[in-house]
Amino acid sequence: MNVTLRGKLQEILDTMIKEGYANTKSEAIRLAILSFGKEHINEDVLVKRKLDKIDREIGTGKRKVLNSKEALGVHTKYLK
Question: For the segment 24-47, what is each residue's pLDDT rounded down to a tens digit?
Fold first, then answer.
């Protein structure tokens, strides 16, 4: 992916590198995206999306759910 930044955005990127927040432009952009996500995307929403995806995978057979005996395998003897 190629990104062209000009003006204020380029100044911010250069400042992030100059002041040591990031070592490269790519790293600075990743930090900016992460910061945006933390500020604007609610973690509860992300968790719900992930759990919904897992539920769909279980429903379609792409993900298997283990019972306690299957999960413990040879350690089943420790079940009470």
Answer: 999 999 999 999 988 888 888 889
Triad 12, 44, 34: Cα angle to 5° = 15
pTM recorded for the entire structure: 0.53
Between these two residues, 37 and 55, which has the higher pLDDT value?
Answer: 55
CA 16/CA 21 separation, integer angstroms: 5
- Residue carrying structure tokens 């432009």: 25
Question: How many other C-beta atoms lie within 10 A of the C-beta of residue 16?
Answer: 19
Locate 2 and state its tokens: 């190629």
DSSP string for 21-69: S-SSHHHHHHHHHHHHHHHHS-HHHHHHHHHHHHHHHHHHTSSPPP-HH
